[in-house]
Write a sequence for this structure.
C-alpha cells in the first residue's frame, strides 16, 4: 500500500479579510460538499465541490 503525503498550502487568513470564526464557519459549510470523481467519458479524475443529491459539480478541477 502506497502512502502519499498531502500537499499543504500555507496562507494567512488575513489575506481574505475575515476573522477566524467566520473562516471556520465557511469551512464547516464547504467540507460536506468536497468530492472526488472520475469522468465516465474521459477517465480523468476530478476534485471539487459537488451537489451529490443532484449529481452535479458546483466547481471542479482535475485532480
Amino acid at each position: 500500500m502506497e502512502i502519499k503525503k498531502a500537499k499543504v498550502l500555507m496562507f494567512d487568513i488575513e489575506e481574505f479579510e475575515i476573522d477566524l470564526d467566520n473562516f471556520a464557519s465557511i469551512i464547516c459549510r464547504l467540507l460536506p460538499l468536497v468530492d472526488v470523481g472520475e469522468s465516465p467519458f474521459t477517465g480523468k479524475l476530478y476534485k471539487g465541490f459537488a451537489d451529490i443529491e443532484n449529481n452535479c459539480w458546483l466547481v471542479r478541477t482535475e485532480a
